[in-house]
Amino acid sequence: MPVPTVDKIWMDGELVDWDDATVHVLTPTLHYGWGVFEGIRAYETEHGPAVFMHRAHMERLVRSAQILQMTVPYTVDELMEATRELIRVNGLRSCYIRPLVYLGYGEMGLNPLPSSVRAMIAVWPWGTYLGDEGLTNGVDAKISSWTRIGSNMIPTGTKACGVYINSSLAKVEALNAGYDEAILLNDSGRVAEGSGENVFVVKDGTLLTPPLADGVLRGVTREAIIGFAHDLGIPFAETVLLRQDLYTADEAFYTGTAAEVVPIRSVDDRVIGPPGPITTQLQDTFFATVQGREPRYADLLDVVA
Fold first, then answer.
1. Contact predicate 82/123, CB 8 Å
2. Least C-beta-crowded within 10 Å: which of 124, 143, 213, 253?
3. How many CB atoms lie within 10 A of CB 67?
4. Which CA distances in Å does 86 have to 10, 11, 17, 142?
5. How far is residue 154's CA from residue 263's CA, in Å, rounded to a whole number?
């Protein structure tokens, strides 16, 4: 489905008409994938649109750029204000937000350093990534034949553009095989993450997720869920997970900005079942928080006044 258009996109400090937000075909980012991005959501609340964990996302964007030796020409506060302005100008009550730091037109070649660093932010209405049915009843996952990239290949702690070829290959394979989403293992056969989500399982009442060292992106929603679990008294551990741990899990779910909190009902045709009590409790807490109905987590929301 095409991206729904809105009036304006923010590019390098200016609001540009949607159809005029273009770059040159010789930008090195297009050819070599040298860029970083974020996925963020703003939700409708009784106080107006509110961006969930806005600062954490923008700080990760800047960190990702630093790892790739790109100096973002804007501060975190400036990027946050640009996002607020963009939401106001486009009159959105809720939306998906896509910041991108990329290389401008300049020197072509594998050395990115001489090229100028550019930035843009786009917003648009976007519903549930894995569908309303998946959000309610769970999705079917497939262990991908594609291995999650290793941290000494491309830094797995960055949301680098080129990294997501790995994710896209896994996603397409899963869809072509009749599944909703993929789960990638690392080169040691350990569970890493979904194509664009972190993975959690529940076993014997304990919430488990793979450690960052297994090729896992430090997801912003992942961190929120870990915090919710702590506050709710749910036992939690980061631990190595193998394929068999997914097959025998009592509950499992994905987390991510696009996916939000989505139950996994089966993995490789091994039935886990409908959403369990811990998944449901964390999912309910997440949506109460992002919709502004949970006062104790009000500080996680940046209300667009």
1. no
2. 213
3. 13
4. 7, 11, 12, 37
5. 29
Cα angle for residues 142, 146, 152 (degrees, 5° grid): 130
* DSSP string for 287-300: HHHHTT--GGGGGG
Whether the CB-CB separation of 44 and 291 falls below 8 Å is answered with yes
Q: Give the pLDDT of residue 1.
A: 67
According to the model, what pLDDT value does residue 255 have?
98
Q: Which residue blocks in 2-161 are alpha helix, DSSP H?
A: 28-32, 54-67, 76-89, 131-137
* DSSP 8-class letter at 283: H
* pLDDT-wise least confident of 29-43, 47-61, 96-110: 96-110
Domains of the chain: 8-124 (3.30.470.10), 131-290 (3.20.10.10)
First to last CA, the chain: 31
Across the chain, mean pLDDT equals: 96
Residue 41: name the closest of 305, 285, 295, 304 by CA.
Answer: 304
Residue 182 burial class via C-beta count within 10 angstroms: exposed 0-12, middle 13-18, buried 19 and up: buried
* pLDDT given for residue 194 in this prediction: 98
Contact (CB, 8 A) for 149 and 215: yes
> Could you please report the per-residue DSSP string of 87-121?
HHHTT-SSEEEEEEEEEPSS--SS--TTSPEEEEE
Residue-wise burial string across 227-243, b where 16 or more C-beta atoms lie within 10 A, e elsewhere: ebbeeeebebeeeebee
Using alpha carbons, list the distances in angstroms from residue 107 to 35, 51, 93, 118: 15, 36, 40, 14
- Residue 142 bears catalytic tag: no
Choose the catalytic residue: 142, 159, 171, 203.
159
